[in-house]
Amino acid sequence: MMFRHKGTNMRWTFAAFMGHFILAFASLEETTQSGASGWTGKLLVVPMDGSHWTGVKAVAEEMGRRGHQVLVVIPEVSVRLGPGKHFTTRTFPVPYGQEELDELQARNAEASKRLPLLERIPTRISNMKKFVKLQTTTAESLLFNQELVDYLRKQNFDAVLTSPAVPTGAILAYNLSLPAVYMLRGLPCRLDSTATACPDPPSYVPRFFTKSTDRMSFGERVVNVLVSCLEPVLCKLSYWTVENMASRFLQRDVSLADILRTGAIWLMSGALWLMRYDFTLEFPKPLMPNMVLIGGINCEVRNPLTKEVEEFVEGSGDHGIVVFTLGSLIASIPKEKAEVFFKAFSMIPQRVLWRYTGEIPENVPKNVKLMKWLPQNDLLGHPKARAFITHGGTHGIYEGICNGVPMVMLPLFGDQSDNVHRVASRGVGVILDIHEITAESLVDALNTVITNSSYKEKMKKLSAIHNDRPMQPLDLAVYWTEFVMRHKGADHLRPAAHDLNWFQYHSLDVIGFLLCAVLIVTLAMLKCCALCWRKCCRKAQKRKAE
Amino acid sequence: MMFRHKGTNMRWTFAAFMGHFILAFASLEETTQSGASGWTGKLLVVPMDGSHWTGVKAVAEEMGRRGHQVLVVIPEVSVRLGPGKHFTTRTFPVPYGQEELDELQARNAEASKRLPLLERIPTRISNMKKFVKLQTTTAESLLFNQELVDYLRKQNFDAVLTSPAVPTGAILAYNLSLPAVYMLRGLPCRLDSTATACPDPPSYVPRFFTKSTDRMSFGERVVNVLVSCLEPVLCKLSYWTVENMASRFLQRDVSLADILRTGAIWLMSGALWLMRYDFTLEFPKPLMPNMVLIGGINCEVRNPLTKEVEEFVEGSGDHGIVVFTLGSLIASIPKEKAEVFFKAFSMIPQRVLWRYTGEIPENVPKNVKLMKWLPQNDLLGHPKARAFITHGGTHGIYEGICNGVPMVMLPLFGDQSDNVHRVASRGVGVILDIHEITAESLVDALNTVITNSSYKEKMKKLSAIHNDRPMQPLDLAVYWTEFVMRHKGADHLRPAAHDLNWFQYHSLDVIGFLLCAVLIVTLAMLKCCALCWRKCCRKAQKRKAE
């Protein structure tokens, strides 16, 4: 089988490790072991396509820059995955072509169309099935590529960095007995909570897709409890194909939660979880010691704007600009929907920069610049940014918060509806329904977030809190990835909860035992009392009889 | 009323703020607000006497050094509290003298004596009562000192830093409506978990004084569940006097948990909790977003040894030294007990440095140096340190771990017995019973930890993990204290769990409602079935009758 080496053709860089750890070790031996200087390792990266790539790529690049040997394994065909400056890529063949991916993107764009319920549900299920099938095919193409897996095994990596939302990397880490570092926002049906043994009481931790905040009415709490009761079933359904594939690959029956929590068959090392959120967006909830919060990791990478874009932005005067994207999976929207946006933009004084790859109509307003790719974060960081129209993906929302730009949000699918409700609950953004949207409602929403000072002020405070952290999220992610590589896992952060079944975890056996004990003692005491009573009665009867 | 100003006589230092935050703020405005440079505030510190002072003092000093105005309020008489280089102290009069404190220390030393059970229990209770009375008297002397409280109110502090184990500072913060920063290892009866709404399942989070690890047998789990059921009662009993005093001072009925979780009457800001542990000592368990781990905060402060001590240490040759202290509250031990130690030390080749203020016998072995005060951390950091004999206080244990020195542990009271069991479970120390100790058993224990390489190796690994952190604990503590000052609290980290009662928190109302709903639906369905059945039966009977 042929492998094409993208990027620097397996050029492992052995440059000196220049990381800036703040370590104070006593002896030289410890220093070397713990990587304060000079220590480098080997990292395997198994990324997921789409927006997940943004954060993983940033860490892979930084790890490479610091002198580690970083190998990124990606399919030959993908939407966003690709080579980097500081890491090596290795591709594997997949039995589909670019056209399938383009079709998937086109299908995603359909989400903005309003369909009748009877049509929408089968369409969504069919889309979901196609998506899962594509992911599973990709995973199989890697895992059952014996030559590639053997090659990876021989490399003796120190750890695997991966997105567990599609758990190819996690399954591979488990098989190669390597400690895993996961980067994620969260997993469907709270699989992340199950795999980390992290408590999340349904009384104040809202479940995905419920659109609730952490302050729920009684009715909302009922829904939340019901959803959390259904989650194990949903999990089984969602990951049925993947668990099947994992069992075939590993040649043993395994649950995905076991794979995720363990990190490796023999290690029992406990993986490290880099969570792409913080509590400016998320509602405060319990955490586990092996969770590291890196919300806003994508906000640091900044580049100057091109001259052309800079001129367009500067030309907006005091009115400033509006930035508009619908995420990496949707590049174009249906023509009739696009017309609504064009109409709205012709009615506002701001200039608009729009990531748009669809058919360009003749009557594009002069204040609108259409671009095939948008330097989103750099534009939001520009002092002239006034509002951000977004679909509500986590990356975009954190870029909005980090740069302090109020948002108009048009959620499409996945966790986006929850994200936008969290943002709206902070008073820093307005939600619009993409199916109901009109030019007037969009103009209204834009005017609200731009001219109502409450949005800007609240966003300023939120942004200040988000940015006020002792260490940048990228440095933190890199630090803990290196930690796992140095110490072959993070065993000391693995809770003993993993060794208990759910019955023991909730102390149900102990409670049962104690209830039985109380019951037996009570019964024994009642029996004693009854005996005493009978004896007394008999004596009294005898006395009477005498 | 007279106040004596210890230290620099109310000299507020306005030196430029030279903190080294790794912040990358977008605009100058945000930078100023968030204190990246130049920003200074006013911090009130209400410390607790004894070993708690170590960590609080380190933060107060560092805050002062960074240009903040730090005022430490302490009683006129104390065991360890005193002035510092970078903060101002203000003393308040107390109705007891140095002799009462000396008596308390002498009583603590008695803990090393073996007493019969019938004598031990009343002695312990009497000691505890004296301790609580002293603490309450000190708290009352501050809180009911109207002049002092008025003065503090006028200062417009940004936050209060305090040890909540004696909640004087917390009550004062609540009264002054200031956000609070707490520094603690843990509170009796898990009051810290209650006040932070932090889940700690009794199935794998061992309770204090049970001596269990996180991997418990069924019997140990039964004990753990029973202890956690008793905790609310224990809490009520332990803090009854203090809650009473707080209610009198605040002129309203308050629970201590409410005071601790709120931080201030009107703010509802949620306090920040600096926890003096990490997971090299503690067993992994859930955390809350407003908990910051600063275990080992006292390990950073290092000074060179005096010439005399250095010569003594260097003279130990390859055998090295043993460091021996029983903590700040016990300076001397009974003569007959001391003789056991002297005898043991005469039998080992190492040199011993012993913090000892008791009567010095004639036959002190040549390899023993008695010192009234011991630079414990500097000695443990010396390459010649071979073993550490300790009572198992948290500070000492972290100094042992940080410097990688195996331990022989003699727990006396408080959380020490739990601490030493945690250390022993890591295979880096040996526990001895101070009541049963003989010269032979001590020599055996010392030889084990010094010559059995397993102890040294495991300690080396544990030390490497403990020291491998992205930021030093002192910097982290200072950072988050400043965060609370900058943002007037840490509202975004306050879980909504605080707004629920325990019934709602555990979703018992929802579960009850759902059970009722299921019951009603089932009954209704049964009723329907019964009706249908009856109708069918009647029809059949009619047919038969026809």
From TrEMBL, chains A, B:
Kindly list the GO CC terms recorded for this protein: endoplasmic reticulum membrane
What EC number(s) does this enzyme carry?
A: 2.4.1.17
Question: Which parts pass through the membrane?
Answer: 510-533
* Molecular function in Gene Ontology: glucuronosyltransferase activity
Q: Does the keyword section mention Endoplasmic reticulum?
A: yes
Listed A to Z, the keywords are: Endoplasmic reticulum, Glycoprotein, Glycosyltransferase, Membrane, Signal, Transferase, Transmembrane, Transmembrane helix
**CDD domains noted in UniProt:** GT1_Gtf-like
Q: Does this entry carry the keyword Glycoprotein? A: yes
Query: Pfam families, alphabetically?
Result: UDPGT
Class of the enzyme per the UniProt entry, highest EC level: transferase
Question: What InterPro entries does UniProt report for this protein, alphabetically?
Answer: UDP-glycosyltransferase (IPR050271), UDP_glucos_trans (IPR002213), UDP_glycos_trans_CS (IPR035595)
Q: Where in the cell is it found?
A: Endoplasmic reticulum membrane
Membrane topology reported for the UniProt record: Single-pass membrane protein
Question: Could you say which residues form the signal peptide?
Answer: 1-26
Which family is it part of? Belongs to the UDP-glycosyltransferase family.
Q: Report the protein name in the record.
A: glucuronosyltransferase
